[in-house]
């Protein structure tokens, strides 16, 4: 179990370091890096490259932004097999619904607990 936690920590941390390097060296904004990483995760998922990383690193690969793109593509892939073309519209959101809901609820909780800066 400790080995799995260490792998997840190292992989997730490496993705964060890579994102910070892109911001610092590439002079990109955080928004550009977020979009870039989600798209890279979706492309890698569509090509079948991200699934082995997810199997090996677990949450270290699914929690960072590329994992969101991967989850969307996997959901679309599954939904198109069962629902056809309609799965293109519903699959990604269905697959990522738990993460989206958690982000909204945690953001709401933070907004209710903490005061904004003036």
Verbal overview:
The protein has one domain. The chain is globular and about 50 Å long. The chain has 118 residues and is mostly helical. The mean pLDDT is 91. It has helices spanning 2-26, 30-46, 50-57, 59-62, 65-83, 87-113. The chain contains 6 helices and no strands.
- What is the assembly state of the chains in this entry? single chain
Helical content stands at: over 70%
Instruction: For the record, give the distance between the C-alpha atoms at the N and C termini, rounded to a whole number.
Output: 45 Å
If you compute it from the alpha carbons, what radius of gyration comes out, rounded to the nearest whole angstrom? 16 Å
Number of strands: 0
Sheet with most strands? none
Series of secondary-structure elements, N-terminal to C-terminal: HHHHHH
Strand content: under 5%
Tally of distinct domains? 1
Structural class: mainly alpha
Which spans of ≥5 residues are poorly predicted at pLDDT below 50?
none
Average pLDDT reading: 91
CA-based shape: globular
Please give the count of helices.
6
């Amino acid at each position: 179990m400790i080995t799995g936690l260490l792998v997840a920590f190292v992989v997730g941390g490496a993705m964060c370091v890579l994102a910070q390097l892109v911001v610092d060296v590439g002079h990109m904004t955080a928004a550009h890096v977020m979009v870039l990483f989600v798209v890279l995760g979706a492309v890698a998922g569509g090509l079948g490259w991200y699934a082995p990383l997810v199997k090996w690193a677990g949450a270290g690969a699914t929690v960072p932004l590329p994992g969101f793109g991967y989850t969307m593509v996997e959901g679309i892939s599954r939904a198109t097999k069962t629902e056809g073309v309609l799965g293109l519209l519903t699959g990604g959101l269905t697959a990522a619904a738990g993460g989206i809901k958690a982000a909204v609820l945690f953001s709401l909780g933070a907004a209710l607990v903490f005061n904004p800066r003036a």
